[in-house]
Every structure is written in structure tokens, then in C-alpha cells.
């Protein structure tokens, strides 16, 4: 089922039987970004990723049905048709529709997962969607079971929902995937990892957002490993290495795991510009909204390399194995080609199925910064398949 087109390119490599998964999220709202940040299906090369996850569709709580999340529903439907044309260019590309995400919250999902009739409605509307748009699978991004207004029963109800989805999708050869938390405490609260792993085709571990402006101190959004400044048990576990290792040690087979990596970063405003170290006090989000992503505390790699690197000071952290940049009271931690290569090497050394990328639109997709289009995603692709 997972044999890919790239098999032919890698078949001569010893021990390599199939191409690694490269699951890339396409987000529907990036068409509203201005200038070089504007990202549409037309920008997406059909052969870059093995799977494209279209995010997000939503859940309608009263009847459990799948809904398009945009006032411009007609535009979104046209976008789905354009994605389908990408697969005509590359028939091995898998198109997956993704439901949920942070902004959807958890309560609706908790309610629907607990009710057998609503679950059946959800499953039927997923099937209708997949048939209608000729997609290849369904991805559930419930963030997160038993958290954010959910209830303890969510852990079991999530599995029941997925089992019922799987039973309905498998006869039609549709894939079932989930995006899950890469934080140990969070994953421990939300998932029965063994049963989850038995039920779904792939697990995309969101190994990022370990730190952000929701904290009141400096921290990288996705450190590969701990720093000597991490002293408590919790501090030591908020990194990619510990997060993904927890999933494996808890019984998830590496062959179903994709390591999530970001093409973005998170920023802070320093309380004292002279203290830029990990855990230095901050006073909230990076306060300069970047021109494309236009979200407090968030920045795309494309914005960093195109607009910020010239005026910010670059630092590499040898322990956490990630970069950050500083200008005055602004501190931004992100991933670049060097750090994302190390993450891809970690995924490979752990024998994982591949990588998940959040998201296509914030890589340097125009190739403005001198390393070709999609330098981060192409770095991951090269390492996984070498
Ligand atoms: C983004 O690009 C699309 C497709 O070219 C175009 O229709 C849309 O108006 C652009 N949006 C902005 C904000 O420039
Ligand atoms: C998971 O949660 C249980 C119950 O709260 C707790 O006993 C256990 O230590 C936790 N495990 C980890 C790895 O956090
Ligand atoms: C993370 O750091 C620990 C302790 O220094 C080390 O044993 C481990 O190999 C490191 N892992 C990675 C992926 O660098
Ligand atoms: C920076 O802030 C941290 C956390 O409050 C503190 O431990 C450290 O001593 C500070 N460093 C400097 C140079 O002020």
C-alpha cells in the first residue's frame, strides 16, 4: 500500500524497499497572503511530497458532519479540484483531507466521538467527501482528546471513532491517518498509543511547539535535544528527541510514525534585550507581525530568510541543534536547512516511515534565498531517501 513511485529511484540502495513518506500540509488560508507570501495549489509541485494533507475541514457539532471552513466555500471547492489535477500529473501522489487543527478546539470532537449516531454521520460524510473529490484518505487532527474542554472518556472514544472510520475506509482503500501531540505529558493524557497504532495507517507526530509565546520565557519551538539549561524533568522532555522516543517506547511501530517538522518559527519580545538566553524572561509574542504570515509570535522560514536574516544576528545552539536570530528585543527560534537535516537524520536513524511537514507555504517555495525552491522540504526529502 505504501510502495511509491520513488521505489524505482531507491531500489538499488541496500535495504531500501520503498520511498520514505513525505507528508506535507497544504493550508487553505494562504491564498489570502500578500506578495511573495501568497500560496495556492498552483505553487505546489506535484512530485515534491508523497502525501499532501489538505487542511483544514471542520466538524459540525450538531450532526457530526464534515464542513468546509471558509466563507468562500466555492473557492475552496475549486481548490480541491485543482489539487486533484496535481494527482493527474503525479498518480502516485496521495491526497488526504485533514479535519481539525488547533482552532477547531476539542469540545466538538469530544461530543461527537461519544455519540454512536454522530460518529456514523461523521463517517458517512467523510466517505461522501472522499468519493466526491476523489481523495485518497482522511486525517484526523483532534487537538487534543481529553484536553482543552474534552473529557477523560475521549481517550477511548477516539479509538472507537478511529476503529469505525477504519472499518468504513478500508474496503475503499482509503487511508486513515492522525496528527498527534509530540509532547510527552500531552500524549500521555490523550492517547492509548498501542491501540491507536493498531488502528491507523500512519501517525504524524507534531514534534514542535514545545515552546512559544504561551510561555513567559525564551524557548525554541522545536529543539532537537535538551540544553544544559533544562534542569527539571519537564524541561528535559520538551524536545523532538524525547518526544519521538516516547512514542516508540510506548509501543508505536516506527514503520507507522512520521516525524513532524516545521518550516516556521516562533518569536518573543525579550524583557531585557541584553538577556537572550534560554529561559530569559519575555513580555509576550514577537511584536512585529511578519508580512506574510501576519500572526503574533509566528514567522515563516520564507520570511526569516528573505526578510530577517540581513538585519538579525544568527546563533546556532550546539546542544539543542537549532538556530535562532535576535534583533534588539526580538528573539525568533526556527528551523533552517542545517537543523531540519538533523531532524531528518534522526527520523532515519530511528527507522521511521518518514516525515511530516507543517507546512508547504512557509518554506522558501519561490527559491528567493538562493537554495532553490522548497529548500527545507527538499533537504528532508534528500536525507530520507539517500
Ligand atoms: C493570491 O494569488 C491568487 C492566485 O494567483 C490570486 O487569485 C489572489 O488574488 C492572490 N491574493 C493576494 C492577496 O494577492
Ligand atoms: C502518564 O500518566 C500517568 C497517570 O497520570 C502517570 O502515572 C505516568 O507517570 C505518566 N507517564 C508519563 C511518561 O508521563
Ligand atoms: C541528545 O542528548 C543526549 C544526552 O546528551 C544524547 O545521549 C543523545 O544521543 C542526543 N540525541 C540526539 C538525537 O542528538
Ligand atoms: C537571563 O535570564 C535567566 C532566567 O531568568 C537568568 O537565569 C540568567 O542569569 C539571565 N542572564 C543574564 C545574562 O542576565
Automatic annotation (TrEMBL):
Secretion signal, residue range per the UniProt entry: 1-19
The chain positions of domain GH18 read 20-386
Q: Does the keyword Cell membrane apply?
A: no
Alphabetical UniProt keywords = Disulfide bond, Glycosidase, Hydrolase, Signal
Q: Which CDD domains match?
A: GH18_chitolectin_chitotriosidase (cd02872)
Q: Which PANTHER family does the annotation name?
A: CHITINASE, CHITINASE 4-RELATED
Q: Does the keyword DNA-binding apply?
A: no
BP GO terms, sorted = chitin catabolic process
Tell me the InterPro entries matching this sequence. Answer: Chitinase_II/V-like_cat, Chitinase_insertion_sf, GH, Glyco_hydro18_cat, Glyco_hydro_18_chit_AS, Glycosyl_Hydrlase_18
MF terms from GO for this chain are:
chitinase activity
- According to its UniProt record, which protein family does this protein belong to? Belongs to the glycosyl hydrolase 18 family.
Question: What's this protein's name?
Answer: GH18 domain-containing protein
Amino acid at each position: 500500500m505504501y510502495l511509491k513511485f520513488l521505489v524505482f529511484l531507491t531500489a538499488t540502495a541496500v535495504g531500501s524497499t520503498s520511498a520514505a513518506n513525505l507528508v506535507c500540509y497544504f493550508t487553505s488560508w494562504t491564498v489570502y497572503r500578500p506578495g511573495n507570501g501568497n500560496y495556492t495549489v498552483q505553487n505546489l509541485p506535484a512530485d515534491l511530497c508523497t502525501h499532501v494533507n489538505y487542511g483544514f475541514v471542520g466538524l459540525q457539532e450538531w450532526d457530526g458532519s464534515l464542513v468546509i471552513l471558509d466563507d468562500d466555500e466555492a473557492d475552496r471547492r475549486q481548490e480541491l479540484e485543482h489539487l486533484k489535477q496535481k494527482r493527474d500529473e503525479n498518480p502516485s501522489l496521495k491526497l488526504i483531507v485533514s479535519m481539525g487543527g488547533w482552532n477547531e478546539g476539542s469540545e466538538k470532537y469530544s461530543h461527537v466521538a461519544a455519540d454512536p449516531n454522530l460518529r456514523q454521520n461523521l463517517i458517512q460524510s467523510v466517505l461522501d467527501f472522499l468519493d466526491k473529490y476523489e481523495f485518497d484518505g482522511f486525517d484526523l487532527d483532534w487537538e487534543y482528546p481529553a484536553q482543552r474542554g474534552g473529557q477523560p472518556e475521549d481517550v477511548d472514544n477516539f479509538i472507537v471513532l478511529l476503529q469505525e472510520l477504519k472499518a468504513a475506509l478500508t474496503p475503499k482503500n482509503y487511508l486513515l491517518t492522525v496528527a498527534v501531540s509530540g509532547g510527552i505529558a500531552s500524549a500521555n493524557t490523550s492517547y492509548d498509543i498501542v491501540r491507536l497504532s493498531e488502528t491507523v495507517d500512519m501517525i504524524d507526530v507534531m514534534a514542535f511547539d514545545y515552546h512559544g509565546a504561551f510561555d513567559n520565557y525564551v524557548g525554541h519551538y522545536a529543539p532537537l535535544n535538551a540544553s544544559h539549561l533544562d534542569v527539571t524533568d519537564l524541561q528535559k522532555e520538551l524536545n523532538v528527541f524525547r518526544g519521538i522516543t516516547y512514542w516508540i517506547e510506548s509501543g508505536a511501530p516506527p514503520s507507522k510514525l512520521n516525524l513532524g517538522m516545521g518550516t516556521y518559527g516562533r518569536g518573543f519580545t525579550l524583557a531585557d534585550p541584553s538577556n537572550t538566553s534560554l529561559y530569559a524572561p519575555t513580555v509576550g509574542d514577537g511584536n512585529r507581525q511578519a508580512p506574510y504570515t501576519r500572526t503574533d509570535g509566528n514567522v515563516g522560514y520564507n520570511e526569516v530568510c528573505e526578510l530577517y536574516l540581513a538585519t538579525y544576528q544568527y546563533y546556532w545552539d550546539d546542544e539543542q541543534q537549532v538556530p535562532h536570530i535576535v534583533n534588539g528585543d526580538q528573539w525568533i527560534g526556527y528551523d533552517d536547512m542545517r537543523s531540519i537535516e538533523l531532524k531528518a537524520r534522526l527520523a532515519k536513524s530511528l527507522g521511521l516511515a518518514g516525515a511530516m511537514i507543517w507546512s508547504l507555504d512557509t518554506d522558501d517555495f519561490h527559491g528567493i534565498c538562493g537554495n532553490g525552491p522548497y529548500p527545507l522540504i527538499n533537504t528532508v526529502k534528500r536525507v530520507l531517501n539517500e
